[in-house]
TrEMBL record:
All residue ranges annotated as the STAS domain in the record: 32-133
Family annotation (Gene3D superfamilies): STAS domain
Region (Disordered): 1-36
SUPFAM superfamilies named in the record: SpoIIaa-like
Regions of compositional bias (Polar residues) in chain numbering: 7-22
GO molecular function annotations of the record: anti-sigma factor antagonist activity
Protein's name in the database: Anti-sigma factor antagonist
Record family assignment: Belongs to the anti-sigma-factor antagonist family.
Organism: Amycolatopsis acidiphila
Length: 133
């Protein structure tokens, strides 16, 4: 990771642990965690943990926020996702469609996450989501 941009960490799920995260500021929450980096007009949202029907609404909220703030490009990096259900795929596909409708280019990076690749392959989503890989 080069210099430049700034990172913020915003873990989210239903249960809150007010202890600081070991990898950055903010709250540490159970299940799904987000990091953001903005650099030269592009935003990268790193998603880590389990992306299922329980945590998908948190990702939807995070992507809505980031797409509203985005200047031009958003990359959603799901390479640290350890489990993904169809609910996670639905959130990614919905966000990509909404981004395209506003002129924002949203792409998904899956490098190294077999959990995500399996869901994409099973659903045919590898052709439906713009890729950053």
């Amino acid at each position: 990771m080069g210099g430049g941009g700034s990172w913020t960490r915003s873990p989210r799920t239903a249960k809150t642990d007010q202890s600081p995260s070991s990898r950055g500021g903010g709250r540490m929450l159970e299940g799904l965690e987000f990091s953001r980096r903005s650099e030269r007009g592009a935003t990268t949202v790193v998603v880590a943990g389990e992306l299922d029907a329980f945590t998908a609404p948190s990702l939807a909220n995070e992507l809505d926020t980031q797409l509203a703030r985005a200047e031009r490009d958003v990359v959603v990096d799901v390479s640290e996702v350890t489990f993904m259900s169809g609910a996670g795929l639905e959130v990614l596909m919905t966000a990509a469609a909404e981004a395209a409708g506003t002129g924002i280019r949203m792409r998904v990076r899956t490098t190294g996450s077999r959990a995500v690749e399996r869901v994409l392959e099973a659903a045919g989503g590898e052709h439906l989501l713009p890729r950053a890989d």
